[in-house]
Amino acid sequence: MASSARQTKGTARAGSTARTGTSARKRRFFNYPRSHVKSFRRWLPSWRVLLGTFLTGTALVAGIVIAAYATTSVPKDPAYAVQNQKTTVYYADGVTEIGTFQEENRVIVDYATLPDYVGNSVVASEDSSFWTNSGIDLKGIARAMVNNLKGGSTQGASTITQQYAERYYAGATVSDYVGKFREAMLALRLTQEQPKEEILGNYLNTIYFGRGAHGIEAAAQAYFGIPASELTISQAAMITAIIPNPTVYDPANNPDITQEKWQRVINRMAKDGHITAAEKAEAAFPADIKEKAATNSKGGQAGYLLDLVRRELEANGYGDGDLDTKGFTIVTTIDKTMQDLAVATAESIPREGDHAASGWLKPSIVSIDPADGAVRAVYGGSDFLSDQYNSATRGVAQAGSTFKPFTLVAALEQGIDLSATYDGNNDVEVPGFYDKGQGVKNFGDQPFGQIDLATATANSVNTVYAALNMEVGPQATVDAAVKAGIPADTMDLKAVPSNVLGTASVHPIDIAHAYATFAAQGFESTPHVVQSVKRLGTGAETYDPPGRNDRVFDADVMAATTYAMTQVVEAKGASGAPAKALNRPVAGKTGTSNDNKSAWFAGYVPQLATVVGLYQDNKETGVQEQITPFGKYYKRSITGGTWPVDAWTSYMEGVLALPQYAEVQDFPEYTMKKVKPSPTPTEEPTEPAIEEPVEPEEPVAPTTVTVPTDLTGRSKADAKAVLEGMGLKVSFTEEYSADVAPGVVLRVGGSGQQVETGKTVTVVLSKGPDPKPKPDPEPEPSTPPPTTPPEGGGNPGSGNGNGNGNGNNGG
After folding, report:
1. Exposure of 316 by Cβ count < 10 A (0-12 exposed, 13-18 middle, 19+ buried)?
2. Fewer Cβ atoms within 10 A, N terminus or C terminus of the chain?
């Protein structure tokens, strides 16, 4: 009984314990560590927990991915920067490049225009599964993760589509995991929405290839100087090879590494079937790689011309960086040959050695087509990088006697004929011009007597033009100047008596503008340097250049004006006489300001107006100063009748030899009337009193020199330097010589003879042995006589004061 009771009691306790334990386990929510498992295993989660955790995590990740994919959309527009295209500016031929405007050097091309191997070279190198993957490469991602976890060199697994998404839409490189995840989602979306060809094409137009080249087109030009559509297999492979590190892999920096990477691309292209085995065998590392160009393209003349283009277009609505980002093809009006001639002419001024010009001397040359105002050449400085100030378009200097034709035009418009006579004597009192009792002086105090306006123009007679200006009224001179093209806001362009002598300070391009109006016989045109602007890709015209405007002067007024200005060239001893050497009709006017601070020759033929100007701007004092004589003029004062007219003639000689100007055209016919009224003014206009100017230095009379006898056997350069140093011009001819090396002087025409400075001496150079000697050669021709140009020089007029007390020459 007792045993049975104990057994029953034990059973009861055991049951109670079991019930209590079961109840405890059911009440325990998190059984960890596991209480029913002994040893270390109690700390390990059960398979059920692991499976549940895995499934929950997978579901969570899947949900995140699905949600991210569902909420990811392809942006409507790419990142701003990848749409940027450079603008290329050309000379008037539309082929020769001047330079570019750009934030990024990029030209977008259609993928369809590229050979298949261009894109496939990038595919083989960067993403071999591109044509078949979904936009991401899971195998590549896993491989990169394993490598990175093992501590190997960091690897990426971005596909071409991911790189495209990163650069084309994000506009920046991402490296964090969140950014990479977003990039992968966008890549998946892109693959669903865009053809692979479009993705690859945009990628090729986006990525950086080194040498400042963004996109495949710019890269092809940078490395081979050809369009991307013309790349060979080897060239495409080389450009592809440098993508991972454009600086290190550039052949200009590490050619051996470049060739190694190029071979890798070629091997992969063959392995993946993008090229045949034969094409692989034929492939050779390109030997025609361009040298690495300087990054700055604005040196020399390019900077000045690009600056003019930018200023013109920005003034006509091309703002907000359009020229640097939107991609245009701009053709200018600048003729490359004429520009080169202008540069050579302006830079012929000696800058070193004996009789060198001052470093502050500023020459300028401008040529304008009178038909429509197109600027054909403009020289305003030697190097834009060292001096951005264009002396031809921004620099100013007193116009001197280049203003006299405006007074002449005003007189002709008022019915005064060229045959009208005036007192051309020296020291003539012109009522209202100076204070009572003070006379106007001619240069060198030279008297001319009673002369007509044509003669007064040819000799730039101050007394006549002072009287003429008082007769027509100084405001009429201003009005004529403005109608011709001188801006109304020109410095010191005032209705004062002395404005006839050029007290206004003008830009050289403005004088060229006005004289182009004369050349066009009264039709004014707006000067411009841009001929056309087209959008890249579409070829759409986006600019309508200015051109010929209204007629501002009557034909008969212009015919008379032009005739008078031809006398500046044709009349004996006139200051523009050197231009007669062109042997065709030329009209023009010299000009020299008071104290010889500026000197000009403005002239034209029917097809072209050209101005040559000089001024000397002292940067230390900040004021213009008297031009320091230089070169063969070092014993003379620099006036319009010295270097400016000689330079004008030399430049135009080259220009007029061009096919478009070769035809000799005549000016309109003009016959002077025989009636000679004497309209000397009798009333004194109430003009401000002005001071008498300081007279310029009288030019030295022509001198004679002896042609050297010791130049035979010397080089062409030596002979040229010796003769030009004596003030002579040189003409070279050649003939065969079996005994004398090519380029060596055989003889000099007029050796030992006395000739005037400025004359032309003929130098005969050897051409070397005749390559086709004849059995019975003809007798050697005699040396041609030296050519003799027309008489040069001339007398610019004397200085005269303006209403502010500043004087001007009449030259």
Report:
1. middle
2. N
3-state secondary structure of 391: coil
- The whole-model pTM stands at 0.67
**pLDDT value at position 133?**
83
pLDDT attached to residue 711: 84
Give the CA distances from residue 768 to residues 726, 734, 736, 763, 771, in Å, rounded to whole numbers and listed in that order.
28, 9, 5, 15, 9
Q: Which two tokens stand for residue 447?
A: 């008297």
Q: Which tokens sit at 268?
A: 């992969």
- Number of C-beta neighbours around residue 544 at 10 A: 9
Tell me the C-alpha distance between 445 and 608, whole Å.
35
Backbone angles phi and psi of 665, in degrees to 5: -110, 150
Report how far residue 506's alpha carbon sits from residue 539's, in angstroms, rounded to the nearest whole number: 39
Q: Largest Cα–Cα distance of the chain, in whole Å?
A: 174
* pLDDT tens track for 18-27: 444 444 445 4
Q: For position 795, what pLDDT does the model report?
A: 32
Nearest CA to 379 out of 332, 346, 334 is that of 346
C-alpha distances in angstroms, 690 versus 136, 621, 759, 779, 783?
A: 86, 26, 42, 71, 59
* Distance of alpha carbon 599 from alpha carbon 363, whole angstroms: 10
Counting other chains too, the contacts that 184-189 makes at CB distance below 8 Å and 24 or more residues apart are 184/135, 184/136, 185/65, 185/68, 185/69, 185/72, 186/72, 186/74, 187/135, 187/136, 187/159, 187/161, 187/162, 188/69, 188/72, 188/134, 188/135, 188/136, 189/69, 189/72, 189/73, 189/74, 189/135
Nearest to 368 by CA among 612, 621, 39: 612
Query: Which is nearest to 284 in space by CA: 337, 238, 218?
Result: 238
Most confident of 452-461, 538-547, 714-723, 754-763: 452-461
The alpha carbon of 796 is separated from its chain's Cα centroid by a whole number of angstroms, namely 37
Task: Tell me the two tokens of residue 801.
Answer: 């004061």
Share of the chain above pLDDT 70, in %: 75
> What are 591's strand-pairing partners?
600
**Cβ 511 vs Cβ 403: under 8 Å:** no
Q: Euclidean distance between the first and final Cα of the chain, in Å?
A: 156
Beta bridge partners of 541: 534
Lowest mean pLDDT among 135-144, 400-409, 802-811: 802-811
> Which parts of 390-483 are beta strand (E)?
397-398, 421-423, 450-452
pLDDT digits (tens, 9 = 90+) for 52-85: 666 666 666 555 555 544 545 555 656 555 677 8
CA distance 190 to 165: 8
Neighbours of 266 (CB within 10 A): 27
570 contacts 131 by C-beta, under 8 angstroms: no
Top pLDDT among 741 and 598 is at 598
Which backbone phi and psi does 329 adopt, to 5 degrees?
-110, 115
Structure tokens belonging to residue 631: 């070169």
- Name the nearest CA neighbour of 629 among 259, 358, 272: 358
Chain-centre distance of CA 208, in angstroms?
26
Helices 508-519 and 474-484: crossing angle, nearest 10°?
90
- Full DSSP string of 472-499: H-HHHHHHHHHHHT--TT-BT--SSGGG
d(CA 591, CA 379): 19
Q: Which of 68-77, 480-489, 513-522 has the lowest mean pLDDT?
A: 68-77
Is 60 exceeded by the pLDDT of residue 601? yes
pLDDT for the residue numbered 414: 95
What is the C-alpha to C-alpha distance for residues 265 and 233, in angstroms, rounded to an integer?
Answer: 10
Q: Please check the confidence at residue 698 and state whether its pLDDT lies above 80.
A: no
Strand partners, 755: 705
203-207, 354-358, 471-475, 681-685: the lowest-pLDDT one: 681-685
